Amino acid sequence: MSTDVNLEQEGVEVKKSACYFCHQNCGVLAHVKDNKVLKIEGDPDFPTNQGGLCCRGNIALKHLDHPERVNYPLKRVGKRGEGKWQQIPWDQAIAEIASRLSGIRSRFGAEAVATAGGTQRTDDWARRRFMNLFGSPNGFHNAHLCWIPTFMVETAIYGWCPFDLDLGASRCIVLWGQNPGASGMPEAHHITDLQEKGLKVIVIDPRFTETAAKADLWLPLRPGSDLALALSWLHVIIYEGLWDQQFVDEHCEGFAELVEHVEPFSPEWAAPLTWLTPEQIRAGAHMYATNKPGNIQWGTSVDQIGRPAGATMHARALLRALTGNLDCPGADLLTGPSQDYLTDEELEGNQYLPEEQKAKQIGSDKFKLVSWPGYSKICELTKKTWGKVPTAEWMCEAHPPSVFRAIASGDPYPVKALLISATNPLASYGETDVVLEALRSVEFMVACDYWITPSAMFADYIMPIAGALERPIITNSYGCADFMLTSQRAIQPMYERRNDFNFWRDLGTALGQTDEQWPWKTVEEAYFSAIKPIGYDVESFDEFVERYRFHFPEREYFKYKRQGFATPSGKVELYSSTLKELGLPPLPEYVGPSENEIDHPELAAKFPLVLTTGGGFMPFHHSEHFQVKDLRFLRHSPFMDINPETAVELGIEDGDWVWIETARGRMKQRANLTSGIHPKVIFTQRCWWYPEKDMRDIPLGGQLGGALESNGNILTCTQDDYCDPYSGTWANRGLLCRVYKVEEAELKEVI
Amino acid sequence: MSAKHQTWGWMLAVDFFFAGMGGAMLVIAGLADLFVGRDSVSLLGSVVGPLAMCVGCGFLILELGRPLQAWRVFMNPKAILTFGAWMMTFAIIFGFIFASFAIDFSLFFWRDSALLRHLVAILMVVTGLIVATYPGVLLARHKGRPFWVGPGIMGLFLLSSLVTAFAAHYLCGLIVAPRNVPYLWEAMPYVLGALLFAQGLLWCGYLWIKLSGTSKSEAASAKRWISGDQSQQFKLAFLFFGTVAPLILTLIPLTMAAAMAAVLALFGGVTMRLLTVNSGNDRTMIPGEAIYRSRLPKGHEKFLGKAWL
Amino acid sequence: MARYAIVMDTRRCIGCHSCTVACKVHNELPTEMVYNPVVSDGPHGTFPNLSMRFLPLICMHCENSPCVDACPTGASIQREDGIVYVEDKKCVGCLSCVMACPYGARYMNHETGAVNKCNLCMDRVDQGLVPHCVATCHQKARIFGDLDDPTSEVNRLINENNGVQLLGELGTEPHIYYIG
Ligand SMILES: Nc1nc2c(c(=O)[nH]1)N[C@H]1C(S)=C(S)[C@@H](COP(=O)(O)OP(=O)(O)OC[C@H]3O[C@@H](n4cnc5c(=O)[nH]c(N)nc54)[C@H](O)[C@@H]3O)O[C@H]1N2
Ligand SMILES: Nc1nc2c(c(=O)[nH]1)N[C@H]1C(S)=C(S)[C@@H](COP(=O)(O)OP(=O)(O)OC[C@H]3O[C@@H](n4cnc5c(=O)[nH]c(N)nc54)[C@H](O)[C@@H]3O)O[C@H]1N2
Ligand code: SF4
Ligand code: SF4
Ligand code: SF4
Ligand code: SF4
Ligand code: SF4
Ligand SMILES: [Mo]
Predict the structure, then answer these.
(1) For A543, which of A130, A725, B208, B264 is 20 to 30 Å away at the CA?
(2) Residue A86: which pLDDT band, with cuts at 50, 70 and 90?
(3) Is A615 on the interface with C (CB under 8 A)?
(4) What is the CATH number that goes with domain A74-147+341-551?
């Protein structure tokens, strides 16, 4: 029953395109004729996926022309949240949005316009450019949950952040709250390859994951207790003499302070906090410190544990430094920004944003590191050493929960417009109730998306966005890598879809931003200007993709020997002067998990189980792809993990619908009984909604696409005192909850 | 969409019932003719035998995904089903021919040839026996179906075919009395009783063997009958009403009681096949497969109804 | 003549279902039809002493294929290279093969009334390509090759790692091997 189309026919071209259903950006070969994609397949020459594609990659053609896609600009004609839309031309939508925004700017100031993004999916630098030219500092993403704080903490300590693993020569990798087996598949096979050659794999994860099942050592810690583990590893490495003496002597500052600081954090101290044995803790520290060179791979978990997040990143960074696993062959590399091509930061136009507007960035008074105060400081340092600075979009953001609260309350000042692009905040941001209140009450809202998501239901305009096959792509890790992988568009956008870049540029132009300020008409032009400095003999971006596609600069190890680290002292600052200046602890101080039995005994009496919400699972990407039948068929309903022992106590059987409840509220998922989780831990899936349900808002008689039924973020917490004082990231993992069966009567029409 | 009906359903069970009963009725009729004498079973019984098989075929055809193409089942001589289909066809033909010997109709010029009658009887006994046995043989060969696999099921099916055939012949004789030698007919309830006794015993034995049997999945399949979802029907409908009750009734020397026993025995036969077919749909699963399949949509889920790709 | 086989490397498989989806999408299967489910064998044990692996299932393309033997119409066919497939127009949907298959690899297509199954992407194989599910596996956990070629990767993997067949005791002689 093979329905393969004839690709030999005349006029079929093969385009080097990509998948962007997650930011791995796997290489795709698209067979195209007459601006129609006939077939896609994984590109065997692409370094990461090597011809493979995951579930989502395979459904690209179903996504491309799915009947539920938004193909034309939609203007709200009914009540907000009622789902009545009128189709209007792109230019009309742009003109109307521009006039609303300029009205708001003149009444309340440019800062009254905020934009929200999700994870990296598209040309976000263009959004920043728009905001800078418009004059608002209030752009943000939920990337607070996703590497950004890690980047800034590590950069404060040693001047850049490793994400480029030099695995080839590595002897040990620590997957810290990371599960490439479900979240980073194209990369997982590299680990397996190397494991066959003797690489040691340590997995730090409360769940027995796809990855943990193949690890040499699995450390199932209490969710949110990563800080205690990291501190005790520091203790073991120092007090058992495992540190790299030469590296520390020559390239680090503040060792004496650190030695004294970690003295109390013995494995015996950490054991009751992490629910690991002192032996397990020591085994991990030894494995990492003695199998050198080694890597600690970033995982989202630590960014998502809330209050202790920053300190944990901080302690983890010190582990690398103490063991000398920095910028040497086989260890974590400090590549610095690209010296060869224009970085995203150089495309963002940060010079356009006036200082007094920067000062108004919401949350920057409370959480300094990932907002203008910390970012400016980091920029000074990196500029001196690297000549360039990190991307502002992502690394310098308004504090998301504070903006949502400002929308609803007008405090610290009115925020009247919200543009959401490439995100579904009701599903993916913390504390859904807070987001919902903001979306219901904001004066003006625009959504740029592929679908009408529950969040987009509240928009005044929904803009149809072109997908990965319809636009060119540069992959370079939030604009902070020194390499780049590129892809070309397979076809011109279908219907009246446009690229995100075009949305921001068109909107800017309609608001009086000039052609000089937007010197590129297409994404290809912009990207060509970015790659031009590298000096390839190409005339266009497309030609670059076709002929070269990748740019990997020659790798230089031990750059710190030549130029020092990008810190005030030029050394790794074990005792961080940068953090200290920002009013943050110069050494990682112990803070308990955002909610825990020890600091919050009363809460723990009511909510006796420990909750962690989220972790990638196949075949979905956060809140996406629930509409794609072939994917949905494989997992049509949400599942939470619970240990069989606990389930028996609670009278829960496999497959039962259960309520999971925290102090914020409750939602329901089905029980997956598995011994792969501690009896006291509950793991829920995260961003569920049900696109098949009535999309109208609940007070209008609808179900809001089921966005409040099984959504893990109903349980999470974004109050200031749950947020990490370094970055402001909030608490998804390491909370307290209780679980009980859903009554039969409440069950009708769940799925 | 329907994730259901991926395995044999009730129509096949009913086919097995009619085919088994019909086949065994031919065997009884033929043997009676050969060893007891002409017309020693009821004419109605002789007609009902092949007719039952026709009805069985009807159900079989309805069970097919493409009923109109049913003729194709004759095409693979190596397949037991093809063999069964041919045998059933022959058995039906021989059955009707045999019945014609008992009909006073002048055009049936052959009816007086004893040789011919004996020949047809022999062919009918052979093909009838095959038809009565082959569903059991078919099931017994299913290596991945823990409840069926093994020779035991053949014996049970053959036995049940005989039970139901005796019951049917008895009932037919009640309506249209056999012309000759009614003592055979009168003896039928006792034979039926004996067979029912064996049926009860063998079923218990069968379940016991499965339960303590070679594989976990066999044990699990037997548990469904003993304490699981099939246990109610098995114990009440089949063991009590379909076996023990008729067995007791056959001990009562009243025509009414024997007739009731026969009806109940037929009921038991249908029940047994429904349960057996249903239970055999359980396959020995690969580790992890059962939970995987149990979590796929059942067919009523709302998202399936959307006109999505 | 070739004898085609797939080796499933359970050391590499991460249970991502990409193969399942690739097959469904590229072969345009009805939603409810899954030729190659990937099941998780485990976790076994009690926390935290556990083990788990993933088993990608598929039609085993049995050398002694009970499904072919059971098919009364001759619609179920085994090619010389071992590929077992259904010739759609001959199938009457009697489900004999479905019942006979010990691996649950056959499905009634309720739209057509016929039974469908994995045909090892024989159109692709005949063109010298690997099956869709093999091509898409970014973990390289599915290795396609020829058992009759003594130098093939599949033979090497089977020999070096004591490849096993699922439900081998049934004597169906699958062409799909599992290692790891
Ligand atoms: N299938 C799929 N893949 C994805 C995505 C997706 O949505 N779906 N999203 C993409 C995105 S945006 C990202 S950022 C990456 C993220 O990918 P990863 O960095 O791998 O992060 P997660 O999968 O979110 O979580 C990793 C693991 O953290 C564990 N965990 C939970 N709580 C804790 C804790 O308190 N401490 C520790 N140490 N571990 C904990 C979870 O059990 C989980 O297995 O995945 C990307 N890939
Ligand atoms: N509780 C809990 N919450 C979490 C997490 C968790 O583990 N637990 N993980 C967090 C993490 S790591 C992340 S990165 C976030 C992700 O948060 P989001 O990025 O908000 O998550 P998605 O569901 O992927 O939403 C993306 C939306 O963007 C649309 N989209 C995709 N591509 C494009 C594009 O190119 N342009 C435009 N305009 N739209 C596009 C999609 O259709 C979809 O509606 O969620 C976070 N939220
Ligand atoms: S891993 Fe999957 S979703 Fe992510 S880019 Fe690759 S194919 Fe696309
Ligand atoms: S695609 Fe490969 S790794 Fe993924 S489930 Fe299939 S066989 Fe396993
Ligand atoms: S796995 Fe099943 S369908 Fe495939 S060849 Fe073997 S018996 Fe036939
Ligand atoms: S369902 Fe089709 S392929 Fe299967 S045995 Fe019957 S006729 Fe043959
Ligand atoms: S070989 Fe082809 S038909 Fe068979 S499971 Fe793989 S993709 Fe599907
Ligand atoms: Mo993320």
Answers:
(1) A130
(2) very high
(3) no
(4) 3.40.50.740
